[in-house]
């Protein structure tokens, strides 16, 4: 195999540059939303990483040193995983929103099951799958290539990521993910609070009435109605925040 590669009219340095680019992209694709889901077979993810490498290689070849570097072999996959994790947090934000909304509206156990690897309420499953589908049809693939180029700006090739930068960016991204998840589920939390306050008032006024049996269908119907009404807005807000991470505005902002 080595003799065959050596006979090709391509410089050996080119093979190394392509391999170095693949190392970073493979780490990123492993956690990339939609393309790096655990339900996707490993061979398909490998093919996606190879395709991203072919598209990205001409754009970043000048960033990569043609000389083989053992340090780069160790650090490039780590850098890819870090940048992939920052994108993966956007999926976790939608999962958090769906879980909070389902718990607030007594829909956490309805239907059950999950299309993904991690079990989650049906409401969270619908939100996550819809968000991933919307991201793909909105150009997640080309935006991911721009995100790879951004990663070389923040962490140049062959350098060990700065601990201070990673801590600062990582903490801000985790905080933003939790804040986004809570903000998306805020309408359901407010409705749940009003529902419980109303049940408490009715229970005090009519102790003999079984308010739970009366209120349970109401909160279930209300939760499904709120989901149907707020669904487009929730997805648009999430997609805007995802675009902010992909173009670097959410990462480079102070």
Q: Poorly predicted ranges (pLDDT <50, ≥5 residues)?
A: 110-117
Total E-strand runs:
0
Main sheet record: none
| Fraction in helix | over 70%
InterPro entries: T3SS_IM_R (IPR002010)
Organism: Pelagovum pacificum
GO cellular component, one term: plasma membrane
Subcellular location: Cell membrane
Short description:
This is Flagellar biosynthetic protein FliR. The protein has 254 residues and is mostly helical. The protein contains nine helices and no strands.
Tag the structure with descriptive keywords.
mainly alpha, cell membrane, cilium, transmembrane
What does this 3D model show about the protein?
The chain crosses the membrane at residues 15-34, 46-64, 70-87, 126-154, 174-197, 209-235. It comes from Pelagovum pacificum. InterPro entries: T3SS_IM_R. It holds the Pfam family Bac_export_1. It is a multi-pass membrane protein. The chain is mainly alpha-helical and 254 residues long. The chain has one domain (2-252). 76% of the residues lie in helices and 0% in strands. The protein has helices spanning 2-7, 12-29, 42-60, 70-104, 122-137, 140-154, 163-205, 211-246, 249-252. Helix 3 (42-60) packs across helix 6 (140-154) and helix 5 packs parallel to helix 8 (211-246). The protein is elongated and about 85 Å long.
Record the SSE blueprint.
Elements: H1 2-7, H2 12-29, H3 42-60, H4 70-104, H5 122-137, H6 140-154, H7 163-205, H8 211-246, H9 249-252
Helix pairs in contact: 2-3, 2-4, 3-6, 4-5, 4-7, 4-8, 5-8, 7-8
């Amino acid at each position: 195999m080595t003799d065959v590669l050596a006979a090709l009219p391509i410089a050996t340095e080119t093979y190394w540059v392509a391999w170095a680019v693949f190392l970073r992209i493979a780490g990123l694709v492993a956690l990339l939303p939609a393309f790096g889901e655990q339900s996707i077979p490993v061979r398909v993810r490998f093919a996606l990483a190879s395709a991203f490498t072919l598209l990205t290689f001409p754009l970043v070849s000048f960033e990569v040193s043609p000389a083989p570097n053992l340090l780069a072999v160790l650090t490039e996959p780590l850098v890819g995983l870090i940048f992939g994790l920052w994108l993966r947090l956007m999926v976790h934000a939608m999962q958090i929103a769906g879980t909070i909304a389902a718990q607030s509206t007594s829909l956490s156990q309805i239907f059950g099951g999950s299309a993904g690897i991690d079990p989650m309420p049906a409401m969270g499953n619908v939100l996550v799958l819809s968000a991933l589908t919307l991201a793909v049809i909105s150009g997640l693939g080309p935006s991911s290539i721009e995100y790879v180029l951004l990663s070389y700006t923040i962490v140049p090739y062959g350098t060990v990521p700065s601990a201070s930068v990673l801590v600062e960016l990582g903490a801000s991204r985790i905080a933003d993910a939790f804040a986004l998840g809570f903000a998306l589920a805020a309408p359901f939390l407010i409705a749940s609070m009003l529902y419980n306050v109303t049940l408490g008032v009715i229970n005090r006024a009519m102790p003999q009435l079984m308010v739970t049996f009366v209120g349970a269908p109401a909160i279930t119907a209300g939760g499904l109605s709120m989901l149907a009404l707020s669904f487009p807005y929730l997805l648009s807000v999430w997609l805007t925040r995802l675009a902010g991470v992909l173009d670097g505005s959410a990462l480079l902002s102070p």
